[in-house]
Amino acid sequence: MSAVRVLVGTRKGAFILAADGKRQRWDVRGPFFAGWEIYHVKGSPADPDRLYASQSSGWFGQIIQRSGDGGATWEAPGGGIKQSADGMPQGESNKFAYDTAPPTGKPLTTHQWYDGTQHPWEFKRVWHLEPSLSDPDVVYAGVEDAALFRSSDGGTTWQELTGLRGHGSGPQWQPGAGGMCLHTILLDPGEPRRMFVAISAAGAFKTEDAGATWRPINRGLQSKFLPNPTAEVGHCVHRLAMNRARPRVLFMQKHWDVMRSDDAGESWREVSDNLPTDFGFVIDVHAHEPDTIYVVPIKSDSEHYPLDGQLRVYRSRTGGGEWEALTKGLPQRDCYVNVLRDAMAVDSLDQCGIYFGTTGGQVYGSADGGDTWNAIVRDLPPVLSVEVQTLP
Amino acid sequence: MIRVELPQHLQTLAGVGREVSLDVSAPVTPRSVFDALEARYPVLRGTIRDHVTLARRPFVRVFACARDWSHESPDSPLPAAVASGAEPLLVVGAIAGG
Prior knowledge:
The complex is a heterodimer. By secondary structure, chain A is mainly β. Chain A has one domain (about 5-80, about 90-390): Methylamine Dehydrogenase, Chain H. Chain A is about 0% helix and about 40% strand. In chain A, the strands form nine sheets. In chain A, strands 3-2-1-31 form a four-stranded antiparallel β-sheet, with no helix packed on it. The longest helix of chain A has 4 residues, at about 100-105. The N and C termini of chain A lie close together (about 5 Å). By secondary structure, chain B is of the alpha+beta class. Chain B has one domain (about 1-95): Roll (Ubiquitin-like (UB roll)). Chain B is about 20% helix and about 20% strand. Chain B is built from three helices and five strands; from the N terminus they run βαβαββαβ. Chain B has a five-stranded mixed β-sheet, covered by helices on one side. The longest helix of chain B is centred in the middle third of the chain and has 11 residues, at about 30-40. The chains are: A mainly beta, B alpha+beta. The interface of A and B includes residues 57, 59 and 61 of A.
């Protein structure tokens, strides 16, 4: 029988929630890395037992953890005692150094700071880890301050893909309230050299040469907080999502507005329509119905909780435009949690499961495409991220 | 041998107890102690000092012989009691946050 494994990152550790294909009884394991912020945990599509976790702390910085057995045991790759040929100890697994080399790092200078001045890039943490679709040892990391790194040795060493910051628009990027983070990485399953990333607050970017060069893909976006609301960059994109069977169609939850692209990001149109508010963080797509999408509307950019204390997932079966509220099993009074941008995921069982975590520590799951919901756990630390693996 | 006391999170990360002992050649300074610590436990690179600049991380403090050495030069000699192993060098997570 198939099974699912939900990987949960929280403010105080990681948790693994496991169930069989019925998704009725859950085994809860953790906390892993207790006391540390776990921004993201994700498994390799090529080897489900290979997991990567971003472990960080305001005190002690960034650690990358890796598991080869589905999360039973973990190691910091490269963190052991090793000697290089020259006798110097090695151990670079946690090192995310921006490229400042003259040939490749030259255009990588500064970004816009809150006071309008230019500010140098400063590494803070890894927000998102995206393992390759085909090679368990290849993994991408989206970091704050916004940049994209790649490891081809299972997270032991990391190299910046400089073409992204090297696009030249960096001086117009600026941090949002959560920092200037690269939080979304989408790999196109049909075009291995095509990737999409999103940055708050810079916008969405696309490469078609495996990360060597990038360009912004924000045509159609409007952001009132920008002097030019339709500027090429500067937009606060909160999340991108795609259905792997139809990778040219992208969905976006922006700071405000839910957007859709039918041309691999070349242009966007708003599909918020009858949503009660189009502010929010998460967005995801049904595993088998490419036009069925999910968002969790949040009241506003200054009140990060659901409208009227009612936690509601909204589903569109038309790829946006027409939305219905899903409430069965979700609290419909006195609920003032948030659902952060990496905290929703879908499994690929025949009856698609949807999962999301809240800043109140609940992880909700639906085994029927969103019609009904159950709290898998209710009292975890604030949830930062949710991923799910569908296991044979 | 130099003795270094680590905060709980770094003990867990390095898989060690509260105190580790290190061989450090003279002069014994914060820099030479942390160089030796990171050489012995590479996973601690970047956790006490920034990977690139080697500056002390803002919320990490360094105490020795009841004195705060956090703001001293990393090349300033540590007290003789630390250099002799009579007293440990304390790496402390600063009180911050909630």
